[in-house]
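Troubleshooting log. The previous structure file for this entry was overwritten by mistake, so regenerating from the original sequence record. Sequence copied from the archived sheet and checked twice against the printout by T.R.
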Amino acid sequence: MTATESARAATITGRGMTMSDLLARHARTIPDAIALRDVRAVRSYRELDERVTRLAGALAARGIEVGDRVAVLGLNSIELLEANFATLRLGALCVPVNFRLVADEIAYLLTDSGATVVVADAGLAPQVKKAREQAPSVRSVIMIDGDYEQVLAEASDTYTEVPVSDDSPAFIMYTSGTTGRPKGAVLTHRNLLLHAFSQIAHLGIGADDTVWLSGAPLFHIAGLAGMIPPLITGGRTIIPPSGGFDPAATVRLLAAERVSSCFFVPAQWAAICAVPGIAEHDLSALRRISWGAAPASTTLLRTMIDTFPQAQVVTAFGQTECSPVTCTLRGEDAIRKIGSIGTPMVNVEVRVVDEEMNDVPRGEVGEIVYRGPTVMTEYWGKPAETAEAFRGGWFHSGELVRQDADGYFYVVDRKKDMIISGGENIYCAEVENVLAGHPQIADVALIGVPDPKWGETPLAVIVPADPADPPTAAAIEAYCREHLAAYKRPREITFVEALPRNPSGKVLKTRLREERAAGALVSRPAV
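Regenerated output below.
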């Protein structure tokens, strides 16, 4: 071994903590404490660690080594998190995949990440089978509620530790962009753990705040990152079922599990606050209620404050690339600064800049950019996009904000080509690229239109290839059903002779939004 190799080995031996290390530590120190609970099962730290060890061995037997990628695809369950931990224990990268995606979309993520093993729900077997046909890198599939338990039973309960540095990549979290193709944000163990420690310090999370529940799915960064603080403190994470959101059942779950902290998107909070007889439930354990991922009205925030007077209402703002929270508005400011996204979290450095990276004066609008140990390392396999995102040495969020005299930030605009519907990001270029492939569509633009339930929904503005024979709503829906997840599909369509464009050829979506608001852009349901 050379001197350089010896130094590298010494560095790895003295590495920082990883998520897998935290699990193993609690399995030794508080083995019988409950780590995870879902609708079907409960896992103590000892049981969880043992099962993760077996699954790690099974993945290793299937060729997974340091730096390899394992895709995880399924509805919320303990098994999804077991797959996450087992992947990380091997020094491999976990690739959470949205279970709502269709086979073509799944195939792209598998191919782009180079995933060699997929752990998926048996109920998604048809999509996985079709996606695998387009993803030659995949060598093996393990099915939850299929062969998963047999795989664990046949694996060894002993494990040879793989040294993993905390600056090693842990997750590839896919987030779409204006190019129309998802980009994989690479988050390290250090990114996620420092984000969790920052939350603990910034929000004052104590030893009595140890039961966590998130309304975000486990493939979403909010669902994933939110469970790390209780993992650090030896707390318990409650995993709600996926599928249709049931606010009454959620309230019962919050009460029964004595949940102390939780996160939901605004549409979910509105439904929770409207549950009949909510005051009759014992929710006294709730200390902190958080919201984010979509805009919330001041009316809703006041309703949340009135409904949960014992809890601190926390606004969480950020993005996947930042692990994800960058700014919070904490309880004491919930009313005084209502409408603000708050101030930067511990370990997050921010600036508000113009196009030339000059700081703008307080009160003026600019892009908020970030620097710090919670920011991703790169977009997987996309050096040009990574360089553009980090131009000037800061990560560019694409969000336009202003800062008031007290240092609190307010969002005034966001990426123009993004629609937030029920907490899900819908990127117009991706949907437009799909629609443009329809033979009866010559040109298309997607914009968001207000919706009382979801915040906004997609409207497709279409130029038909033959004005005398435009595509029917049924044809468009059938085409989108084949190529797009349900939440991305247009809910309304309208036909125009031509799209408004500027001299450089860019579609003037602002004009389309103005026309829609003025009633000049008549639309009809797409479904």
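Confidence is low (pLDDT under 50) at residues 1-12. Archived copy saved in two places this time.
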